[in-house]
Amino acid sequence: MQSSRRLLLFDIDGTLIDSGGAGIQSLKDVLQQQFGISDDLRGVEVAGKTDTGIVHQILRKMRIPVEDETTKAFLDLYLEFLAKELPLRDGRVLPGVPELLQRLRERPQNVLALLTGNLERGAKLKLSHYGIWDFFEFGAFADDHHDRNELGPFAQRRAREKHAIDFAAAEIDVIGDTPHDIACGKAIGARTIAVATGTFSRVQLAEHQPDKILDDFAEVESIISNLGW
Fold first, then answer.
1. Among 11, 99, 110, 207, which residue carries the largest CB count within 10 Å?
2. Residues in CB range of 225: below 8 A, 6 or more apart
């Protein structure tokens, strides 16, 4: 029997791809060029945070006033550096991801979208570089809100606008590699699927009580069957 309709909301970094550190290096480059500051960004929480929130952390660490104009200028320059940095890095699409996305797209009950802390332009740069941007119909991004837990409703609204469907919480999966992804999914009552391909181990992710935990996406057919995708 065919599965019911599902809205699948994927994180990017550590879930779909490993950019080889392109993002963090680009942040460091902006700090150096814009403010003349060299810093390793130790103490700045990056994994699972929005780009806007990360920049706010950096500015506070450097005791630079957090203002809209400063944040926008930082992010604009970050995207310029990111475009240059991605081809220089030894990044990769994570195991099983292209095959999984292809199989999911072939099933008409699935709507594939993004729920990510990346800016939309940054998300497109990264996923286009690795050849998987076109798998996703739309997304919710850092452009929408600096707090990741507020992004779910943006994705739900865009799904409704595109498909004229109000996806119930039970019909939504939020897939990611950090506790912030889990919290974001729980904020809208979605099923949360954690994957231990980022900086958090399976044990660490389990502490945040996701509905499912995967080691990776390598066993595509088994994952589709077990998750009802």
1. 11
2. none
Distance from C-alpha of 207 to C-alpha of 226, rounded to nearest angstrom: 22
- Distance, CA of 228 to CA of 144 (rounded, Å): 30
Strand 172-176 to 6-10 pairing? parallel
pLDDT tens for the chain, 229 residues long, are 334 799 999 999 999 999 999 999 999 999 999 999 998 898 888 887 999 999 999 999 999 999 999 999 999 999 999 999 999 999 999 999 999 999 999 999 999 999 999 999 999 999 999 999 999 999 999 999 999 999 999 999 999 999 999 999 999 999 999 999 999 999 999 999 999 999 999 999 999 999 999 999 999 999 999 999 9
Angle between helices 51-61 and 68-85 (to 10 degrees): 110
Q: Which amino acid is at 119?
A: L
Residue 154 near residue 140 (C-beta atoms within 8 A) = yes
Locate 198 and state its tokens: 């980022």
